[in-house]
Amino acid sequence: MVSAAAHATPTFSPLYQQIKALILGSLRSGEWKPGEVIPSEIELAARFRVSQGTVRKAIDELAAENLLLRRQGKGTFVATHAEQQVQFRFLKLVPDSGSRGSEGPAQRDIIECRRVRASADVAKALALRCGDTVLQVRRVLSFGGAPAILEDIWLPAAPFKGLTAERLATCKGPMYALFETEFNVRMVRAEEKIRAVAATETHADLLKVAVGGPLLSVERIAYTYQREPMELRKGYYRTDTHHYQNDMN
Amino acid sequence: MVSAAAHATPTFSPLYQQIKALILGSLRSGEWKPGEVIPSEIELAARFRVSQGTVRKAIDELAAENLLLRRQGKGTFVATHAEQQVQFRFLKLVPDSGSRGSEGPAQRDIIECRRVRASADVAKALALRCGDTVLQVRRVLSFGGAPAILEDIWLPAAPFKGLTAERLATCKGPMYALFETEFNVRMVRAEEKIRAVAATETHADLLKVAVGGPLLSVERIAYTYQREPMELRKGYYRTDTHHYQNDMN
DNA sequence: TAGTGGTCTAGACCACATA
DNA sequence: ATGTGGTCTAGACCACTAC
After folding, report:
1. Is residue A6 scored above 90 in pLDDT?
2. Nearest nucleotide, C1' to the C-alpha of B71?
3. What is the enclosing helix (H) or strand (E) of A190?
4. B194 near A CB under 8 A
5. Residue pLDDT, tens place only, A209-220
6. Does A197 lie at the interface with B, CB-CB under 8 angstroms?
7. Nearest chain A residue (CA) to B187
8. Distance, CA of A85 to C1' of C10, in Å
9. Which nucleotide is closest to the Cα of A39 by its C1'?
């Protein structure tokens, strides 16, 4: 028996995975921006010197991961948070009666937006060094006139240079859509840690609830392409008239 | 398999979707049980008179939905909650430090298990009539000696005929694995509504927390094949040392 | 060595959107 | 009419598992 394997590389990577990585690279580099069409399967097959079927399988996986969006007869598009169908993809709070029909919070009040030095936990979450400059945003989201969500958001200062409270206030769609068009940052994945906590005075004041009453704490880290953390968000949700909906397959 | 519906019927169903429905039927009927191998792709292609590629695409989708599990060189298997890799798939509570390594709660105490009449909300959740007989189970799950979860579970009486507190207490693995082997019920999907609530005296007593303190309320409806609701579960989680983890792609 | 799922190809045809 | 993605096929070959 020959102990040596036929190929020296123990890492076997299918062709379509390599193609997938190449497409991902073009997405990450900004060659194709959110909302735009990417080249047709036939063009990509020619560019990469593989069959259309191989390109198809690569795109299939990227579409399953919500990075691309296929539209029959029209082409394949880079997914975007501005898309009507997938707006507020990461917002799981829905009214107890009926489900939110892809529309977001009616009112969004920016309480503050300032530059601060990253604390230890913020730095860790964003893969920065302690003391690095970050943007801190506080806002309140309301549904039907009643405040329901208080959010504290931390963003690395460099990629979001120029972001102001005014700019956030004049934004109509989702904040993540603004990030795409203004800062070329696309959020593709998010992890949330959820807890029940007692409302502090600040919470109570801004959300019009009783001090010590139960609030849902939602701590999110959002990632761009390549699993780079780009946002830390600590949310406090009222869950007396709404609930956090999680569907599992 | 090619239906001759070439009329004005707006219902166009690809071949592989029809194959998928047929495979689903066999799963539902119990022809192939959880943990068993299903026939090879070549066999299924012969049975259904289609190409292997078409069978493959049908199986691909079922595998993506966690109904089947492909294992290269061995075959395709019916997914099961007894599987080491996917045990406690629907349990999202993890310790704050480090993540649960596929092991579940160390201790599971059955507080009660009795037959009751379905209240309005239980009947609605389980698609039963108000007053129908249901089994009600209450239990406490502990991690590392400390109680962390109180659960009230309602099951339709008919499919779970013969289930007792003793049988539940002697069960080692996940409850859903017991359901598969003893009652031929496989849970494939679950919806959870999550809220923050204040602990009642009962909660406080069983979970060793303060009355009025924050608890995570997790209301789950679990479904078998074909989206039939088969379980209603109201859980109350302590989230001082653990958190509910939700990862979104 | 045989059988399984996994990859890759090439080509035909269908459904959908647009011009 | 053209171009896009979607379906279906047939066949070759690769990688993994078991015997």
Report:
1. no
2. C5
3. strand A189-198
4. yes
5. 999 999 999 999
6. yes
7. A249
8. 36
9. D4
Nucleotide nearest B14 (Cα, C1'): D7
Residue A242 burial (10 A CB sphere; 0-12, 13-18, 19+) = buried
Q: Residue B5's pLDDT is what?
A: 36
Q: pTM value?
A: 0.94
User: Under 8 Å CB-to-CB from A94, ≥6 apart: which residues?
Assistant: A100, A242, A243, A245
What domains sit in chain A, N to C, each tagged with a CATH number? 4-78 (1.10.10.10), 84-244 (3.40.1410.10)
CA atom of B10 to C1′ atom of C17, Å: 17
Distance from C-alpha of B154 to C-alpha of B160, rounded to nearest angstrom: 11
Q: What is the DSSP string of B155-224?
A: EETTTTTT--HHHHHT--S-HHHHHHHHH-----EEEEEEEEEE--HHHHHHHT--TT-EEEEEEEEEE-
Give pLDDT, residue A5: 36
Residues of chain B contacting residue A191, judged by C-beta atoms under 8 Å apart: 245-248
Task: Give me the pLDDT at residue A9, please.
Answer: 41
Q: Could you give the C-alpha distances from B202 to A192, A201, A212, B119, B207, in angstroms and in order?
A: 29, 28, 19, 20, 8
- Substitution target from A67, A81, A249 for chain B, most B beta carbons within 10 A: A249
CA distance B139 to B119: 20
Give A45 CA → C9 C1' in Å.
12
A3-17, A54-68, B170-184: the lowest-pLDDT one: A3-17
Contact status, residue B201 vs residue B211, Cβ threshold 8 Å: yes
Contact check, Cβ <8 Å, B194/A194: yes
Predicted confidence (pLDDT) per residue in B139-194, tens digit: 999 998 899 999 999 999 999 999 999 999 999 999 999 999 999 999 999 999 99
